[in-house]
Design a protein that fits this description.
Helices cover 88% and strands 0% of the residues. By secondary structure, it is mostly helical. The chain is flat and about 45 Å long.
Length: 98
């Protein structure tokens, strides 16, 4: 029970300390879940939702880093750009299969 209490307190503290980063993390975790479901059940709504969440989180990360740079700005921006390009490629692939 202590283990869960520790994680709940960490979860609450991280959401209060840096809300934009918390929302981005939540969006990326949901995207991973949706893309995982899309690989098991090849339905387009799961793929579209997962890719949309990745695009939203990537753009949010890029805007946040432009406004308030962190110590690892270049790595964060590079990762966000790679995620954005991969998700846009996934959307282009979905449009070709229509």
């Amino acid at each position: 029970m202590r283990y869960w209490h520790f994680w709940l307190n960490s979860f609450i503290l991280s959401s209060q300390y840096n809300p934009p980063r918390f929302v981005e993390l939540l969006m990326l975790m949901l995207a991973i879940a949706m893309l995982g479901i899309a690989t098991i059940m090849p339905d387009r709504p799961y793929m579209v939702l997962g890719l949309s969440l990745v695009v939203g989180a990537s753009i949010s990360i890029l805007v946040r880093e432009a406004i308030a740079p962190s110590p690892q700005t270049k790595i964060t921006q590079l990762t966000a750009l790679i995620l954005l390009f991969i998700s846009l490629y996934g959307f282009a692939d979905l449009l070709q299969t229509l």
